[in-house]
Amino acid sequence: EKGGYPHFMLKEIFEQPRSIYDSMRGRLDASTGRLTLGGLIEYQNRLANADRIIMVACGTSWHAGLVAEYIFEELARIPVEVEYASEFRYRNPIIRENDIVIAISQSGETADTIAAVQIAKAKGALILGVCNVVGSTIARMTHAGAYTHAGPEIGVASTKAFTAQLTVLTMMALFTAHKKGTISEARFRQLLVGLETLPQKVEETLERVHEPIKKIAALFKDARNFLYLGRGCNFPVALEGALKLKEISYIHAEGYPAAEMKHGPIALIDNQMPVVFIALQDSSYEKIISNIQEVKARNGRVIAIVNEGDEVVKNMAEFVIEIPKTEEILSPILSVLPLQLLAYHIAVLRGCDVDQPRNLAKSVTVE
Ligand code: M6R
């Protein structure tokens, strides 16, 4: 059942080329410029005319929402708010006629997300679901949606569901932007090609980073703390990397937008502090390089996720992990992979129960 892997989590990490492909299958064809999301066709106009999109979710699914905020705003120019379902439900949230609520949930059974959907529904909002489990409570409650089709996820730590959520949310943003005319046909086509080539790049990435990550895991398995830093659409990836490490290895970890470091967490940095940077050659590159310098100046141990061929960060960081280049908004799907593997290998080396971490359940069906 684990397909020869020692844990479901590792199996699911390595399933990602396939699960991402499955999330696009029958929906996208770059050669003809076709993008269809069956369940959303009748809502394409509503999406294009939305005044605001509110995403509600918990945990890793909330991180997917944060990445999607960058993508929707960039492509479709619609303001997005991303809310913890547990906060949204108790706040008497303001929902207007032209708002659309997107509920993101792997299981479709998370109690807080169910309650958030109920409240938004009672206020008359259009609710769309991005769920993995077909026929789950949230999938049935929403007006329409797009399944992630990642297949069953057994490991408590979400991995393939996250990258499938990102793929589907990106397709939703493109579907909306195309209708709305906020991106050119050429750009639309480029991004379809970017999406279509992702499964191959995910496979390359996993192959390429696995051994180097194992070495880094062995060196840092006894660390007491970890800091993860990223900017732009890779800031939520920093949060996700930290969550993965916390939940399965029980090491305290925090994710931050790199520029926020100066506003507090920089005080934590000394020669005992591993700092994982997502430092890709994108619109944040120069800025993140300065942040790396700030950490180095305080003797922090820099581990950087970089694009292949990067020379600048290579000369600064103690360790670099190279990943292929892709479109900036698609890069979280690649940059999260080494972070999943790092958490996995550290947890295994510490003797933790990777698939069933203490105190955690796969779906949180009580509040
Ligand atoms: O099934 P859901 O996507 O609604 O679950 C939300 C969170 O409980 C979940 O992502 C949790 O944070 C994971 N254990 C993270 O790996």
From TrEMBL:
Enzyme class label:
transferase
Per UniProt, which keywords does this protein have?
A: Aminotransferase, Cytoplasm, Glutamine amidotransferase, Repeat, Transferase
Reactions accelerated catalytically: D-fructose 6-phosphate + L-glutamine = D-glucosamine 6-phosphate + L-glutamate
One of the GO BP terms on file: UDP-N-acetylglucosamine metabolic process
This protein's GO CC annotations? cytosol
Coiled-coil regions, chain positions: none
The EC number(s) given in the record are 2.6.1.16
This molecule's function is given as: Catalyzes the first step in hexosamine metabolism, converting fructose-6P into glucosamine-6P using glutamine as a nitrogen source.
Listed under subunit, the entry gives: Homodimer.
Under what name is this protein listed? Glutamine--fructose-6-phosphate aminotransferase [isomerizing]
From which organism does this entry originate? Thermonema lapsum
